[in-house]
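thought: fold this chain, then report.
action: predict
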Amino acid sequence: MRLIVLLLALLVSSPALAQGIQQTKGDFEDKFRQLDEVLADPNVYRNASGAPGHQYWQQEADYSINATLDEDGRRLTARATVTYKNNSPDTLPWIWMQLDQNRFRTDSMAELTDTFGGPGRRGPARSLGNGSAPARLSLEELRRQQALADNTYGYDISRVQLTSGRALDHTIVGTLMRIDLPTPLRSGQSVSFNIDWAYNIVEENVIFARSGYEHFPDDAREGGNDLFLFAQWFPRLVAYSDYEGWHNKEFLGRGEFTLEFGDYDVAMTVPNDHIVSSTGVLANPTSVLTATQRQRLAQARNKTDEPMFIVTPEEALANESSNPTGTKTWRFTAQKVRDFAWATSRKFIWDAQAHKQPGAEQETVMAMSFWPKEGGELWRKYSTAAVVHTMEVYSRYSFDYPYPTAQSVNGPVGGMEYPMITFNGPRTTLQDDGSRTYSESEKIFLIGVVIHEIGHIYFPMVVNSDERQWTWMDEGINSFLDSVAGYEWDPDIQWTRSLPRDLIPYMTSSQQVPIMTQSDSVLNIGPNAYGKPSAAYHILRDTVIGRERFDFALREYARRWKFKRPTPTDFFRTMEEASGTDLDWFWRGWFFTTDHVDISLDSIHRLRIDTANPDIDLARRRQELANEPEKVGVRLNREQGVPIWVLENPGVTDFYDENDQFTVTPRDTKKYESFLDGLEGWERQVFDRAVEEDANYYVLSFSNLGGLVMPIILDLHFVDGSKERMHIPAEIWRRNSREVSKLLIFPKGKELSEVVLDPDWETADADINNNHYPRKIIDSRVEAFKSPEPTSRSGRDLMAEVQQGAKKAAEEEASEGEGSEESNP
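observation:
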């Protein structure tokens, strides 16, 4: 018998059987069904708690690179020695490399599958009113197409060979390259090989890339100046993992990256009047920095109150008009990073400030910013300050910042992140008088984007999630934390996109897709991968779990997977295991469906206990009848003074004019006594207490119109002016996810006057108008406007336009003639 029970338990818990469970009668839907059949099975590499397993492994890739920038030709030439260590239990006959610059080839999968009318570059279709919508092409897109036609982009691979000199067979497949090894690489072995390559650098503002150059034609230097941002600039090892093997998914532009950690030694040869910002630590400062710059940098290591200039605005302005007399080679080293990026320009202003982390592995982190004069006072005031603020906040929710530098670089890329370095776009505007100003929106943009991109150094540069597949894993957590950091910076600034109330338009739109959609397939990447996950975490933290347990769980996730590669399953399981909360209902609803939140408070019924005592209950009913609205006809008769017969003729009255249906009779009294005698002891005790307390009983009825189950948060307003907040867990929907009722009991004298559902708009409830009982009048406004003028040619007064144009031209001609006669008498 015990064996049968165990077998049955095993079958019920198995994913295969769980998938076969069906509701065949009625319309019951289990919103709290476990996710076991969806999540990956635990194993020796990833255990059931969401932590790395005792046999967890990941690969390692080390790079030694020498790169040379041809500034005038806007071309990069480089060579690298790559050492790849196979820490997996598998034998690998080949290795795969990422060639991301190939994304800009005209025959790339990204270009060939780029649909017309896609986001960002082309104007929307315009209806003619007859059902047709002509296509429109923007000048920006025309410029991009012309640049692709006029230039050859993508990698030129000139050498792939073992360090011993033996050539390696290799096959290029779009943005990937397979390198066939002469001998399969067994577990625990390493292989070192050389790659030489070059590529033409794209103009970022034209091609819309994540890196490239920006040209400044108006600088004092003849021919202007360029600012270069280098990312995805070298062939990088494709990730190989326990759950997917080789992550050889084509780079299409949106889905970002997942990479292997390793050590880097990188030398960049650039014009000798350039300043370089880079991943890592400068290894040869005496070769590339002046004595003054080195002295300033040393002073900045002890300056924590504000940044100090390493290259001043005046020095940078002087550099703008200079011409290089040769080259310099800047050398940077970095340990345990998953990528490497850098920037270079003679235009850079450079400031630095120390951020102290007592007791951390990196006790001093250099927060630094690099920007051209176009960044102006906006960058001087806010960039490095935002870098420091980000580290202070994020470290509380994850781990101490693990690297020696954190940098913010201004350039044409609006916002992008790499280990120790970020690219951020906002700038000032040049005015006619030569001054530079910035709008409030640019200020908010800069502070927000620096916080967001520096935050990415934690997620995913250290917590190494797979951005190619699951954008939300890093963007969602990062958007959540950047909003936390933003409100700690200044709660009065209108930060957007990350709170539950911000996501309502997207969550109710027909364009919504599940968060768990693969990155390249998401139409609206912002609300889907950034905003909706962030809103979910705010709800978990503030509404479902509570701040203390949520923060503990998030820190546990970050620390478990620091310098490792987590999956969605690992995140879900860690958050549940560390918080002590079953959240399968939450993950299923928020991440796997497109349901939205719309809970309606439909009705409230007030109940009062019947005492069974006729002296009490019948008097109550008489009063209830007296409180009913007066009959309309009776009221109108009274108002018109119509006489009442029984008052005019007293002789027609009898017994029933003095006694009504609520008069207590001996029979009523006897029935009451019999009722009390029939109660058992505990029943009489309960009944007597209820009669004595005379409490107020309310039944609140709710309906779930949006489909997404959520906790029910209520503000209860009472007649005496007091107010209470009540939180009902989401599990109230476990047996009926469409409608539920809840009994609330309040002591005598505590009567409800109003109930408000989700009073602080914390659950992303789409319709707040059904959240009040009694219903509230909906506020709107009266807008004064005039009917718009006709825009079609048939509605224009062409005759008047032509006549007025001809008249104006004649007047201008006559005026010019008069001026000519006066000057030539």
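thought: worth noting. The two ends are 126 Å apart (CA to CA).
final: tokens above.
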